[in-house]
Every structure is written in structure tokens, then in C-alpha cells.
Amino acid sequence: MTPDPASAAAPLPQRLSELGFTAGTGYLSACTSGLPTAATAHAMRSFVDDWAAGRANARTLGEQAERCRALFAGIAGVTVDRVAIGSQVSQLVSVIASSMPDGAEVLCAAGDFSSLTHPFEQHAHRGVRVRYAPVSQLADEIRAGTTLVVFSLVQSATGEVADAEPIRVAAARAGARTLVDLTQSLGWLPTGAGAFDFTVCHAYKWLCAPRGTAFLTVRAGLEDELVPVAAGWYSADDVWGSCYAGHTPLAAGAGRFDVSPAWPVLGGTEAALTGIASLDPDAVHAHDLALANAAREVLGLPPSDSAIVAWADPDGDDLAALTAGGITASGRAGNARIAFHLWNTAADVERLARALRR
Predict the structure, then answer these.
(1) Which residues does residue 216 pair with via DSSP β-bridges, in sequence order?
(2) By the 8 A CB rule, do 25 and 351 touch?
(3) Most buried one in 76, 108, 193, 264, CB count within 10 A?
(4) Rounded distance between C-alpha atoms, residue 105 and residue 126, angstroms
(5) Residue 154 banded pLDDT, cuts 50, 70, 90
(6) β-strand 198-202 against 146-152: which pairing, if any?
């Protein structure tokens, strides 16, 4: 399902119209969950119909999973052998956390999403120490004893975009690895996985896939540093030849960290990633950021570099007003939070202004 070159070259408004988002105005919550394209919704319904009719085929679904892997690799800017398939970010992060040596120091961004940090805290009994610093200060906090630096490229609660290059350089200088969560960035921010040692990404937000497909990338040569603690029948290059004990080889690349994919969401994931792959990432970035900054102007906030707009709302009054105004938004860590993505237009900014009477 490679995108048609002529369609891929079409201007962004035309491509967005072709993708067929149907929610209408008021959905400002890509940072919570993306919306399905028409093709994604159709694929999800088709799986249920095929399953109910007894037509679901495990080998066909496996081929679909491999197409999802290839599509994600293209979007993330890595080769396909660098990508593992999972279901949740915390499960994939746990592979890395379990592989930390006894006594390792893991430096994490303060206030980051718990699925990224919590797995490391469970290894305190082995002397693994988790230290926190603001994401803006991570580069300065890396020291000779740091084993791994962990951060989301875009922070969930605030929308802050990490200055990743100084962090990467400082980590390399100290001999530390990097683990970066792309869940809140990949799909709108044109920064992929290639610069980092490990990345994780759940595809149900900015990549518009159904919930239940997540990805791990592992830099070439680092797979032997990790223990495939969830290895199963899907962790081999020949999955159908490794179903039973006695012949369970590991895949040569990152596929050794696969878990069996969630079959019901594969068709929707493939359709979603096909749609995202057909778009010009720079055009998507410009579209999302322009709307986010228009919203910031309405809110009396300065321009920013994030498609997520968050502001202090400790009592939830603004969030309640947004809800009353027909806007789907979210509240996180004492903030009201909105986001702008492919289906949003200037009409959403106007609706925001009306809801908040600004």
C-alpha cells in the first residue's frame, strides 16, 4: 500500500480532503487521541466483518503487520530492520529498563509521561537510580556516571519541545545512551528516530492509528545490549517456524523485541500510516503550528514551536467552558490543553474564541 506518487505530491488541503476526516469542528485533542481517516474507519469495520464471517487469516494479518512496520520505518526515517512492533509504550520501555545494568543511573525529564519513566523505577532493587531534571536542563545534567537519558521529544502536559540535539551530543560525550518518546511528536514534528539510540512511539495520537499499535526503534549494533524479556513466537524472522519450544531463534534485528501484534487494529494502523506517509511532513508542521499559534493569540499567549497549547487552569474553569462550547480538550497537571492537527481549520480557532469569550 505505497502512496500514489501523484497523490503524495498534491497540496496539503487537497490531500487532507482525500483522507476524509469526519469529526467537524471542535476536536482539539490530537494530544489525547488522533482521529481516523475514512480508510482507517473502513479497515476497522472490515476486520470485524471478516472475523465474524470466519475470514480472518493469521498469515494475511502477519503480512499486514510487516507493512505497518515498513510504513512506520519510512515515517520515522530508519530502516525496517530497526523497528519492533508492540502494543503499548510501557511494554517496549520495559525491555530497555530490564536491560539496565545493576547500579545504572537513568536521567529522565521531570514531569514526563509515566509510561516512559515508571518502568525504570521498578528496578530500584537492583540499584538502578532514576534522577530527574527539567527537560530544558537535561543536557547540563548529564554526567560521567549517566547510563541512559530518557525524555519525550514533546512533553505531554505542557507541549514543550525538547532541544534534542544538545542532549544527544552531551549523552554521546558522556558515553550514555538516549531513549526518546516520539508519541507526542511523530506525525506533526518532522524529527524522526534516526538520531537517537532508542525511540518508542504509540501510533494512536498524531499518527491517527487505532490504539494498540506501538513501535520501538533500536540503533544498529545495540540490539545485543537489550534482553528480549517478552520474546515469543513473533520474535523471530520466520515467525511460523518458531511457534513451539525447541526452535525459538531471535530475529537478527529489532524484530527480536516484537510481541504478537494486536490483530484487530492492524488494518486501521496500516491505513493510518499510509495516509500520514502520503503527506509532506513540513507542510503538516506548518499547518499545525499556524493554527496553534493563532489559538495562542486568542489566549493572550506568546507564539511557540509546539502544536500543543497548554495554559494554567488549576480550577478547570477554562476546560469546563471549552466543553460547554462543544470543544473536545483535556486537562493535564493543572493545565488546560488543546492541540491542532490535520482535521483542524481556522474555524476551530474561532470556536475556541467563542467558547472562552475572547
Answers:
(1) 84, 200
(2) yes
(3) 193
(4) 11
(5) very high
(6) unpaired
Q: What are phi and psi of 357, to 5 degrees?
A: 55, 50
pLDDT at 9: 55
Cα Dmax for the chain: 67
Total-model pTM? 0.95
Q: Are residues 338 and 29 in contact, defined by beta-carbon separation less than 8 angstroms?
A: yes
Q: What would the 3-class secondary structure string for the chain be?
A: CCCCHHHHCCCHHHHHHHHCCCCCCCECCCCCCCCCCHHHHHHHHHHHHHHHCCCCCHHHHHHHHHHHHHHHHHHHCCCHHHEEEECCHHHHHHHHHHCCCCCCEEEEECCCCHHHHHHHHCCHHHCCEEEEECHHHHHHHCCCCEEEEEEECECCCCCCECCHHHHHHHHHHHCCEEEEECCCCCCCCCCCCCCCCEEEEECCCCCCCCCCCEEEEECCCCHHHCCCCCCCCCCCCCHHHCCCCCCCCCCCCHHHHCCCCCHHHHHHHHHHHHHHHCCCHHHHHHHHHHHHHHHHHHHCCCCCCCCEEEEECCCCHHHHHHHHCCCECEEECCEEEEECCCCCCHHHHHHHHHHHCC
**Residues 149, 262 within the same domain:** yes
Domain count, the chain: 2
Alpha carbon distance 273, 286 (integer Å):
20
- How many CB atoms sit inside 10 A of residue 316's CB? 12
Same domain, 267 and 291: no
Q: How many CB atoms lie within 10 A of CB 7?
A: 12
The model's pLDDT over 231-244, given as tens digits with 9 standing for 90+, comes to 999 999 999 999 99
Of 257, 277, 297, which one is at a domain's C-terminal end? 277
pLDDT in tens, 266-292: 999 999 999 999 999 999 999 999 999
Q: How confident is the model at residue 337 (pLDDT cuts 50, 70, 90)?
A: very high
